[in-house]
Amino acid sequence: MSAYLARRLHLTARLAQLERHLREIETNRRRVTNPLDPDWKDQAPTRQNDAVLDKLAAGDRQQMTAIRAALIRIAEGTYGICRTCGEPIAPQRLAALPYATQCLACATQAEQQAQYAPHTWPNRKLG
Q1: How many domains in the chain?
Q2: Range of the domain at 122
Q3: Which of the chain's termini has less CB crowding within 10 Å, N or C?
């Protein structure tokens, strides 16, 4: 079995797992099995839980988008190629982050540039 076929199977399985998790979150949020208490003060813990569920769902959606994009790259034959420099992404990086779009050097450089970009500095006046 080729490395990309194994990776595609792994990504497809992970996508299915995330889809199931997202459905569970959405079912919970719809209050099908656990309706809100009529007393708004008693709703506070449930509402806090909703905020956590919303963040989990957002993370799942983001990962699902990345996985779908990786599956498209596998189908197109561009999987494992850095979108920035065009060099191959190390197999170790793809094993750790199978939907990586950049090699480690380019990802590190992009992260450092974002970290030191002036628009990200809070309350800092330029000039």
Answers
A1: 2
A2: 81-127
A3: C
Sequence-separated (6 or more) residues with CB below 8 Å from residue 84: 102, 103, 106, 110
Spatial contact of 99 and 15, defined as CB atoms under 8 Å apart: no
pTM of the model: 0.73
Please report, as a single letter, which amino acid is at residue 11.
Answer: L
SS3 letters across the chain = CCHHHHHHHHHHHHHHHHHHHHHHHHHHHCCCCCCCCCCHHHHHHHHHHHHHHHHHHHHHHHHHHHHHHHHHHHHHCCCCECCCCCCECCHHHHHHCCCCCCCHHHHHHHHHHHHCCHHHCCCCCCC
110: Cβ contacts below 8 Å, ≥ 6 apart: 84, 102
Structural domain ending residue among the three candidates 64, 79, 94: 79
pLDDT for 35-93, tens place per residue?
655 665 665 565 567 778 889 899 999 999 999 999 999 999 999 999 999 999 999 99
Same domain, 73 and 97: no
